[in-house]
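Re-run requested by the PI after the first attempt was lost when the workstation crashed. Everything re-entered from the original request form. Ligand of interest: coenzyme A.
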Amino acid sequence: MEYQTERLILRPWKHSDREPFAAMNADPDVMRYFPSTRTREESDNMVTAADHILAQKGWGLWAVEEKSSGAFMGFVGLNIPGYELPFSPVIEIGWRLDKPFWGKGYAPEAARKALEIGFNQHAMDEIVAFTALENLQSQRVMEKIGMCRCEEFDHPSIKKGQPLCRHVLYRVTKNQMR
Ligand SMILES: CC(C)(COP(=O)(O)OP(=O)(O)OC[C@H]1O[C@@H](n2cnc3c(N)ncnc32)[C@H](O)[C@@H]1OP(=O)(O)O)[C@@H](O)C(=O)NCCC(=O)NCCS
């Protein structure tokens, strides 16, 4: 199932997305707020898993395409974190776009569609987002779409004391989104 916004398409993954996705996952700028970049194999495994979940549930991490150019830009979507968090269980919204597409308001545009799908088609009560305290770009997206900053916490998979360990949690319900 494919969804459209004014400038974007949220869709299942294509084989041709794998190469540009691996390239962005290997880019230290794109992965600046993650513990490491990803290998081609890790990147491909993520695509396989994301596509499987999308087919199974009808929601998940969609590949995002720029309508005007047809270019694959990255992903935006909904996900159940694969590890225990202080506020589990939750459904999170997440995004990762390649550098040429930053700063155009694309992540908030796609994220609003993902929230709408979660709330209206899948009756989700609340959606969260979290990111490293240092990742102000991502927090800006959370604020733009109406999410409320709640609490800070230490990410369970990052060693305490490391700069990326401290994270911030945002939450949103259907009537708060904008
Ligand atoms: C976070 C991310 C998805 C934001 O997407 P986006 O489509 O650029 O979002 P916006 O255009 O709304 O910009 C959000 C903020 O990013 C910052 N920003 C924009 N362009 C930027 C650039 N080229 N370089 C650095 N920061 C930039 C600005 O602060 C902007 O806020 P503003 O619009 O109030 O000025 C994107 O930066 C990204 O994919 N980053 C790498 C992966 C990542 O960190 N994902 C989140 C993990 S939780």
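Saved to the shared folder this time. Helices lie at 18-25, 40-57, 106-121, 136-144.
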